[in-house]
Amino acid sequence: MVARFIGGAPSGSPREDERGSAGLAHVGEAPLAPRIDEIRRRPLFSLQGYSGLQRSCGDVYFPASVEELRVLFRMAKRTGRRITFRAGGQSFDGQALNDDIVISMHHFRSIEIDTQRARMTVGAGATWGAIARELAARGFVPYTVVSTSHATAGGTVSGDCLSRFSGIASKEGHYVERLSLLRLDGQLLSLSPDDATSALFHAVIGGLGYLGAVIDVTYRIARVAPAGTPIRVVTQATRCTSLEELATALLPRPEQLLPSEGGTALEDGWIPEALFSIAFHTLEGTKGMVLRSRYVPGTSHELRPLLIHRPRHVLRVPIEWLMRASVVSRGLWTLIDRFLFDVSRPYVDELMGYLFFMDGNVRAKRIAQTFGMPMLTLQQAFMIPYDPRAPEDSLRRLVDFLGKVDEIATRDGIPPLLLDVLHIQGDQFLLSANHGTDGFAVTLAFEVSEEESAHRLRLRLSELSARALELGGRVYLVKNVHATAEHLQAMYAHALPEFVRLKRLVDPDGLLRNEFLERVFPAHFGPAPRPASP
Predict the structure, then answer these.
(1) How far is C-alpha 208 from the chain's CA centre?
(2) Which of 108, 203, 406, 474 could form a disulfide with 433 if both were Cys (CB 3.0 to 4.6 A apart)?
């Protein structure tokens, strides 16, 4: 059985990317090609990244079909203007910003679910909130999904994103079976991991929208409950007394992992679990805990939600605002640790609250903006390599890096609001921080209210990037990135030549722009010369 939706609602109409401009055709004639002035546009529209630290002002177009995208591509080639793709607007850095042309994929939001094959095909503009709701109604969940419902499939697949379930289930790209890519020359390609398109497939996933327009994505999905049955998430938290204990507890047991890479019958009946850790600074020092979560069908488990998994709770907005001051943050974490974290019994959350806990931060930022209160967010993630043949040495590297984080926080009085760590399996996606190696993903989150504090944090994050490189690690390219060009070049030297080759193959005129990649890898992705407009 295949169910089809447009924007999360059932529909029998054609998928949005197939409609073109059929309404303009005469009976018995081929559809007329759309004109550029028929495509919705917001001229000189101001945009910003999720962090609030990067901004742009350009012409934003909202195409509703592949043919309209082709029209925009032809216009860009004719005029020399450069294009960036955007949908949910949840990128932390400048990955979806451009002062020239921004193409919004908002209208490409179809959702098709094949319950018999445990597959779904979703448009690039489909939000994960809409996707998760449609899946849950049929007893399914994504194997791994980011923590805000506002992010879109096209955006997250372009980042090969991770989540709390990635500690066991790996990252998003692991579950992509196929994707459609529209090249700048108008060719619509179907890419998969096992055929002649494999090289481009492994570059587009994690390629930050720099190789073409992702139109739709087919994912494998996990059945966790009978259709129509509520799904809840049970989480058991365990306190850790040392960084060594925390690091060791993050290694998944062999029986928790898929015996081989996905796409086989081995996935049938395998339900992903989450295994991750959090650390936070209190007035009494750094505290940490490891959390294990699993999906459960039905309502036999009484709800006992964590506050962080209640994004619309009345206290969530004021707490998010107060956390910007480091002294207040440590005080709040002290109260939370003493009186709210009861690890003696499991927590039980509603599915959507658990999956999309960062929606509370999104809401707090939006409300703050209406009052003119800046809430600047910095999140940077590092991958510290793990070699299963030398586990003790690998764990020492992780503890070394976490100790450096703690040293800087204590020295400068700017502790992260939250630090989380999880183990990630290696993959073959070119710009993945885990390309060719298992590792520990270490993510630091900060909230500040002024640019001066943000500048201090950039310096400290760059210092941590240098330490990660010394340990053989990399910076994750999907969040904020603060590191020298030389350090980033060394981290990604294994992948950049092949990525550049593929970029030139699919975009020989350099019409696609990614402000972020061109800034962090200037030797490889310098801006292309722009001809004079006719």
Answers:
(1) 10
(2) 474
Contact (Cβ atoms closer than 8 angstroms) between residue 274 and residue 205: no
Q: What value, to the nearest 5°, has the Cα angle with vertex 142 and ends 136 and 146?
A: 110
How far is residue 82's CA from residue 509's CA, in Å, rounded to a whole number? 10
- Helix 451-470 and helix 391-412: axis angle, to 10°? 160
Residues with Cβ within 8 Å of 321's Cβ and at least 6 positions away in sequence, in order, are 364, 368, 373, 375
Residue pLDDT, tens place only, 215-230: 999 999 999 999 999 9
Cβ(143)–Cβ(175) below 8 Å: yes
Residue 382 has pLDDT above 80, yes or no: yes
Report residue 186 CA to chain centroid gap.
27
Residue 507 DSSP class: -
Residue type, 429: F
Q: Residue 464, class by beta-carbon neighbours within 10 Å (0-12 exposed, 13-18 middle, 19+ buried)?
A: buried
Q: For residue 13, is pLDDT > 60?
A: no
Question: Rounded to whole angstroms, how far apart are CA atoms 222 and 208?
Answer: 26
Q: How does residue 268 score in pLDDT terms, banded at 50, 70 and 90?
A: low
**Distance of CA 11 to CAs 15, 63, 109, Å?**
9, 20, 12
Residue 142 CB partners (closer than 8 Å, separation 6+)? 128, 131, 132, 135, 175, 219, 221, 222
From the number of C-beta atoms within 10 Å of its C-beta (0-12, 13-18, 19+), residue 10 rates as exposed
Residue 520 neighbours by CB distance under 10 Å: 23
pLDDT at 9: 42
Average confidence score pLDDT of the chain: 85
CATH number of 2-17+36-223: 3.30.465.10
Binned at pLDDT 50, 70 and 90, residue 446 comes out as confident
Give the Cα separation of 330 and 281 in Å (integer): 6
Radius of gyration of the chain (CA): 23
506 membership: H or E segment, kind and range? helix 496-506
Q: Give residue-wise pLDDT tens across range 392-423.
A: 999 999 999 999 998 888 787 777 888 899 99
In this structure, what DSSP letter does residue 100 have? S
- The residue with tokens 């709770």 is 313
